[in-house]
């Protein structure tokens, strides 16, 4: 059973979003997603200052075996990317909700977060995945 | 409902992530495929390859039958226990499958892929009509590959049979219902054992007790690609011939009177020269090459047939079918991004070490 922290929001495409105190939103992929991908060996992150829409492709995560697109869970401007992942992509496997974050967005509208799934809703998506 | 090998319960108990492959529920990994890969390169790992298809061929006509269906020459097996790698071709010289054939006291044993078992069974049935042979598909046998620098030592400890450590590469011995071949699909030393299911479960448990780690299909794929070994269905199929699949060494044109299926087509191809070749690719910057991606060379375009991230080397490697004259630098189109790569001769890793500078 994978770890789904209750304080985060989730996209059905397996990204998580966390509202920070400064109103920005940090994005990563879920424990379920990193587990399904297996050992992550390469992460392609969005450009700084890129403007992304919710559901738009914003990067790629490659494991030994497969490539998977990363979608922005919320629209806004990319204000930070996690450069640690360039040299240590395995951080995504080790700490998906912490040091393995992907990028941070200044959202167009924080209220858009309400469109995302809560932990229970996302848990149901993961269960469907396994059947 | 997918088929399960006798080791299925052992995989689940070891925390395997199970996937369906060629109609079988097989372990993809038991946690980290990179750790499993490294374990095989540096110590010993074991694979459940019971999904592979095994045929026993008996009868006076068996040598003539194998001389007819194989592009390699079964006549090279001059003693009991010897084994040979080769391909089965169609009339157009397309590859029906690749296989290993072992010579036994009585007859031969052929091991073909899991995904092609039914196809090969039908092909054998059609082709064997005039040869007076018996063909038995051994669904009762499981198969365990023990691979890595300490694989034979560990295997020897379990079976306590001096023949195990004395085996020459590509030879085999039989002990009761178990056949052991010094063969594999990882580029490391090791053995493959074919044996009844219950015996396979015991062997697996005893090897595990000696510290041999289970490794899944994902590690098997990275290991075989580093070793430059083709995977049927990815790097070759019925639309490609062995000469353009880096398998010219497995085609025996001598003796000239041996009329194997595909020979005429292959002689024509050989005379005119193949337009394409299968060779290796290393990626020179970040990213991962994948099956189907376009390769752009100075001599024309090619295609990645197998691509992944090499755990031993720390960068992406691939097999690719490219124009025959192509060499040196090229580019690979990775989802719209052109990335620099270099054509090299496989293998990429030999006995745990990098081959190319």
Structure write-up:
The complex is a heterodimer of chains A (131) and B (357). Chain A has 131 residues and is α+β, with helices and mostly antiparallel strands. Helices cover 20% and strands 32% of the residues of chain A. Chain A is built from 4 helices and 9 strands, in the order E-E-E-H-E-E-E-E-E-H-H-E-H. The longest helix of chain A is centred in the last third of the chain and has 11 residues, at 119-129. The mean pLDDT of chain A is 93. Chain B has 357 residues and is an alpha+beta fold. Helix content of chain B is 23%, strand content 33%. Chain B has 9 helices and 21 strands. Chain B has a 6-stranded mixed beta sheet. Chain B has a 6-stranded antiparallel beta barrel with strand order 14-17-16-15-18-19. In chain B, a hairpin with a 2-residue loop joins strand 15 and strand 16 (300-309). The model of chain B has no long low-confidence stretch (mean pLDDT 96). Chains A and B meet through strand 4 and strand 6 of A and helix 8 of B.
Brief summary:
The complex is a heterodimer of chains A (131) and B (357). By secondary structure, chain A is an alpha+beta fold. Chain A has helices at residues 31-37, 84-87, 91-94, 119-129, and strands at 9-10, 15-19, 25-29, 40-44, 51-52, 57-63, 67-71, 76-81, 103-107.
């Amino acid at each position: 059973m994978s770890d789904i922290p209750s304080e985060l929001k989730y996209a059905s495409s397996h990204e998580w979003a966390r509202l920070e105190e400064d109103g920005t939103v940090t994005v990563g992929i879920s424990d379920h997603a990193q587990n399904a991908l297996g050992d992550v060996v390469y992460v392609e992150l969005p450009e700084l200052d890129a403007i992304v829409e919710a559901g738009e492709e914003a990067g790629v995560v490659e494991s030994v075996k497969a490539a998977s697109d990363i979608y922005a869970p919320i629209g806004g401007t990319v204000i930070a990317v996690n450069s640690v992942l360039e040299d240590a992509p395995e951080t995504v496997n080790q700490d998906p909700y912490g040091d393995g974050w992907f990028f941070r967005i200044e959202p167009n509208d924080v209220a858009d977060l309400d469109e995302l799934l809560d932990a229970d809703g996302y848990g149901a998506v993961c269960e469907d995945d396994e059947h | 409902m997918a088929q399960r090998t006798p080791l299925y319960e052992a995989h689940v108990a070891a925390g395997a992530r199970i996937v369906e492959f060629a109609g079988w529920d097989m372990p993809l990994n038991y946690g980290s495929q990179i750790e499993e890969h490294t374990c095989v390169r540096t110590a010993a790992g074991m694979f459940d390859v019971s999904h592979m298809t095994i045929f026993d061929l008996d009868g006076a006509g068996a040598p003539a039958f194998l001389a007819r269906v194989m592009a390699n020459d079964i006549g090279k097996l001059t003693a009991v226990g010897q084994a040979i790698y080769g391909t089965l071709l169609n009339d157009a010289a397309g590859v029906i499958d690749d296989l290993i054939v072992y010579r036994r006291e009585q007859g031969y044993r052929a091991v073909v892929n899991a995904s092609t078992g039914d196809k090969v069974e039908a092909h054998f049935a059609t082709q064997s009509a005039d040869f007076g042979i018996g063909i038995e598909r051994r669904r009762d046998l499981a198969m365990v590959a023990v691979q890595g620098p300490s694989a034979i030592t560990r295997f020897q400890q379990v079976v306590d049979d001096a023949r195990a450590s004395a085996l020459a590469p590509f030879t085999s011995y039989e002990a009761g219902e178990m056949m052991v071949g010094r063969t594999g699909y990882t580029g490391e030393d090791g053995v493959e054992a074919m044996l009844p299911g219950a015996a396979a479960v015991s062997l697996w448990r005893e090897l595990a007790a000696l510290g041999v780690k289970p490794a899944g299909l994902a590690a098997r794929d990275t290991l075989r690609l580093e070793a430059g070994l083709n995977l049927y269905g990815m790097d070759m199929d019925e639309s490609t011939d062995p000469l353009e699949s880096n398998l010219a060494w497995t085609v025996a044109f001598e003796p000239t009177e041996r009329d194997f299926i595909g020979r005429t087509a292959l002689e024509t191809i050989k005379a005119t020269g193949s337009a394409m070749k299968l060779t290796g690719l290393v990626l020179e910057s970040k990213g991962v090459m994948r099956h189907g991606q376009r390769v752009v060379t100075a001599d024309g375009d090619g295609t990645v047939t197998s691509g992944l991230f090499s755990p031993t080397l720390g960068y992406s490697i691939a097999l690719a079918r490219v124009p025959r004259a192509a060499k040196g630098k090229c580019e690979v189109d990775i989802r719209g991004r052109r990335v620099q790569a270099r054509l090299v001769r496989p293998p990429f890793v030999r006995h745990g070490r990098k081959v190319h500078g």
